Amino acid sequence: MKRTNHKSEDMKENDLKFFASDTMKLPLIAIAQQKKYIILSPPEIIYCGAEGSYTHVYMSSGEAFLVSLKLKTMSELLQMWPEFVRIHHSYLINVNMLKHIETGDGWQACMVNSQLLPVSNSRRPLLMSVFHTERDQRDGKGGDGA
Question: Which of 18, 50, 73, 88 lies 20 to 30 A from 3 at CA?
Answer without folding.
Answer: 18
